[in-house]
Design goal:
Order of helices and strands: HHHHHEE
Largest sheet: 2 strands, antiparallel
Shape: elongated
Radius of gyration: 23 Å
Number of strands: 2
Structural class: mainly alpha
């Protein structure tokens, strides 16, 4: 799932900038590549978020936090396509900050509107079944008692 749209990305990168980073001619936007990059950004976000939440996250309260992160990652990926991301320190720094924010969300939670949708919680100790058996290992072979 994409957490941002091409219109939201256009607020970060001009239409000309999008054309230069997506199309081979650099004069018009290649919408297919733009959609692929936005999907890649969403997939990268899901890799971090899936440790804590069920993805994709659709809660309206969480989207104001996730949309700017997606735009930042998609911007980096667009510039990376043309091998010019490393030449723009601000894009690289913004990308690193977005990844750090995803790590903080993964570690500490912090997405509003998700309530109990967090996953990966440990069950209480009383929920565990004891393992009982009478198998004995002798010389690398397991012997079972009947």
């Amino acid at each position: 799932m994409a957490y941002c749209t091409s219109a939201q990305l256009e607020a970060q990168i001009s239409e000309l900038g999008q054309a230069q980073t997506t199309a081979e001619t650099g004069t018009s936007i290649d919408a297919t590549i733009l959609d692929e990059v936005i999907d890649q950004a969403g997939n990268k976000m899901n890799l971090y978020l899936m440790a804590k939440y069920t993805v994709p996250i659709t809660a309206a309260d969480a989207l104001p936090i996730l949309v700017p992160i997606c735009v930042t990652i998609a911007t980096y990926l667009l510039y990376k396509r043309r091998l010019i991301a490393s030449k723009n320190d601000q894009i690289v720094e913004d990308y690193k900050l977005a990844i750090e924010e995803l790590k903080m969300i993964r570690e500490d939670g912090g997405l509003p509107g998700l309530g109990d949708s967090a996953i990966g919680t440990e069950p209480a100790i009383e929920d565990y079944e004891p393992i009982v058996g009478s198998e004995t290992q002798v010389f690398g072979t397991v012997l079972q008692s009947f």
